[in-house]
Amino acid sequence: MDLPVRSLYLCRHGQDEDNAEGLLNGQRNRPLTALGREQAAAAADFIRTKYPHIDVILCSPLSRATDTALAIAQGLPNGQPVPVLLDLLKERNFGVMSGKPIADIVSLAGGDDNVIKTDKVTYFLEVEGGENFPTLLKRAEEVLDYLKRPIFSGQNVLLVCHGDIGKMIRAAFHQWTWQQGLQTPYFANTEVLELKPFA
User: Fold this and answer.
1) Would you tell me which of 30, 101, 171, 179 could form a disulfide with 17, CB atoms 3.0–4.6 Å apart?
2) Considering its fold, how many domains does the chain have in total?
3) Residues 148-172: pLDDT tens digits?
4) Residue at 63 is within a domain
5) Helices 63-75 and 34-50, interaxial angle, to 10°?
6) Is 53 contained in some domain?
């Protein structure tokens, strides 16, 4: 992927209440748990130590991501940069699956033909009111197109986002299919991924 940025990192938000309760969150806007705040603080320490040169933080407007991004920004030298909200980084819209138990994904999605099972996550594919993965991959491509703006040239950029959109951003970056993107290793709460190399 040919981008003008110097380096690009992804970070998933800390644990939120839906994560803790075993519920599918999607675009539900529930806050970080106490553990999630601890995870965000730990991510801030990690990034300050390993990637103190972050110039730009873009984050999903959902509170679990913005609060994680704020913790990271406050841990960087001089509390900079201030996170900028980017709607494209919102989690996948889960439609009718939003708020449903993760344990019931297969039955709620209509059976094995409408899911993909990976190492730690079972992904539902087509549900009423939800984004499918081809659409989500296109949104991820829009995120990368956004980063082609001259303002990001030579900048070290951190994207604070969510599990499904994070996997699709990684897929778009490497020009993988959405299916290949889903089969990549689990993207854990506050895990930091560096996307490289650049063309």
Assistant:
1) 30
2) 1
3) 999 999 999 999 999 999 999 999 9
4) yes
5) 40
6) yes
Q: Any catalytic annotation for residue 13?
A: yes
Digit-coded pLDDT (tens) for 112-145: 999 999 989 999 999 999 999 999 999 999 999 9
User: At residue 147, what are phi and psi to the nearest 5 degrees?
Assistant: -75, -5
Q: Is 91 marked active-site?
A: yes
Structure tokens at 9: 């990192």
Q: How far apart are the C-alpha atoms of 32 and 58, rounded to whole Å?
A: 18
Distance (Å, whole) CA 115 – CA 10 = 25
Global model pTM greater than 0.90: yes
User: With contact defined as beta carbons under 8 Å apart, do 103 and 90 qualify?
Assistant: no
Q: Domain with 129 in it: what CATH number? A: 3.40.50.1240
Q: Does residue 73 lie in a domain region? A: yes
Catalytic member of 13, 131, 141, 162: 13
